Amino acid sequence: MPDWIVTTRSPEETRRLGNFLGQAVERPVLFLLSGDLGAGKTCLAQGLAGGLDVPEDEPVTSPTYTLMNQYKGRFDLFHFDLYRLSQPEDLLDLGFDEYVGGPGVVLVEWADRFPEVLQEGLLIRMDWESVDRRRIRFKALDESHETLLERLKNLWEKGEGS
Q1: What is the pLDDT of residues 62-75, one digit of tens each?
Q2: Residues 129, 8: Cα–Cα separation, whole Å
Q3: Which of 21, 26, 97, 160 is in the most buried spot, having the most CB atoms within 10 Å?
């Protein structure tokens, strides 16, 4: 499956990319997000929520200690953070398998901690290039997410991101 790489130059631009990603969603999907601390994962999540029409007054934060936050929008957004989990069985304890393939959008931060469990979706890898620049690599793991990636690319190229 093809990759697509984007460089954002500010937190606002990363949020805008996330917003386009949310706008591109037409059905329940799975986003597998990874990157170092401070790479912009929460900024991307905030933009995604906006693109899914989560109300602006709803604060979107990383669920590091709650493990999952839910937001109501055009599709429900289930935002997981796997950083504190130690083994794949912990995902079952969370009921994670009930959300994947369900009626909402699932965003998983630190998805690279359990690659053997997460075999479908859209991989999103965020890396530092400099203080303000982030390199974001998207890779679709299946056809439906490849279609979503094409919609995102089109929105980004037509919008302010190009």
Answers
A1: 887 778 899 999 99
A2: 10
A3: 21
